[in-house]
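Q: Sequence in, structure out?
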Amino acid sequence: MPPVFACVAFLMRICTNVLFSPKAFQNVPIRKETQLEKNIKMTREQKDIQIRKEAKATLILFLICFIWNVGFAYGLSGTGIRLFGLPLWWLISTPGMFIVAVIGVVYLLKKVFVNFDLEDETEGGAEDAE
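A: Exactly. Output:
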C-alpha cells in the first residue's frame, strides 16, 4: 500500500474511533438555534428584502466560484506542473472550487439565509385575500 493511502486509512480509523465512541457525545453542550432553524415572522416588505439579499449573496458566491474555476484553469494551464500525476491547474480549479463553494454555502447558511414562511399571513385565511 502506498504511504499516502496508508496515512489516509490511519486518519480515517482515528476519526471513526473518535466520532463513534460512546464517550464522544457525553459532554456536548446544547447549541442555540440558528437563524435558519427559527421560523421568523416578517412583513411582506421584509420578506422581499430578505429574498433579494439571499439571491444577491448566492449570485456573488456563484461568480466567485466561476472566476476561481476559470481563472486557475486558464492561468495555470501552461505551467506543466503535475502533482500526484494530475495537472496543477486541474487540482486547484476543480476540487479547489468545490472546497470554496462548500465554505461559501456554509457561510451563507449561517449568516445570510433566514427561515421564514413565504405565505402571506392574513387573519381570515384565503377568503379575505379576494
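The radius of gyration is 23 Å.
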